[in-house]
Amino acid sequence: MRGARAGSLVLMGLLAALSACGPVPVEQAELTCLRDARLAERPQTNVSLGVGTGIGGGGTRGFGSVSVDLSGDYLMGRDPSQVYDRCVQRRSGQMPRRPLYDQPGWTG
Q: What is the predicted pLDDT for the residue at 2?
């Protein structure tokens, strides 16, 4: 009996968490989905370089990092505007108010 009760509590918690993932306003989805469209157009890279001193007089040290965001949509050659439309519809349940190429901030 205890195992069944614990299982039902877990299921109730999961259902509550999923219900919090409901649709977002279309305006918010449009802003969020611009990133997906950009990644479908080309990979995004970030390079960071710096110089610092070691703790306890260990001298000067250089450091750096490189990150690359690469999407499956880019690898599959998908059209960024279609990626954008699908993303907005998935997140908001509505089609975008205007196409990707008319969105402020789109430079594609």
A: 54
How far apart CA 100 and CA 49 sit, in angstroms, is 34
Residue range of the domain that includes 79: 24-102
In a domain, 94, yes or no: yes
Q: Is residue 15 part of a domain?
A: no
Instruction: Name the domain count of the chain.
Output: 1
Alpha helices in the chain (DSSP H): 2-19, 26-41, 72-75, 80-92
pLDDT in tens, 97-107: 999 999 887 88
- Tens-place pLDDT, residues 61-75: 777 888 888 899 999
* Coil/strand/helix, residue 44: strand
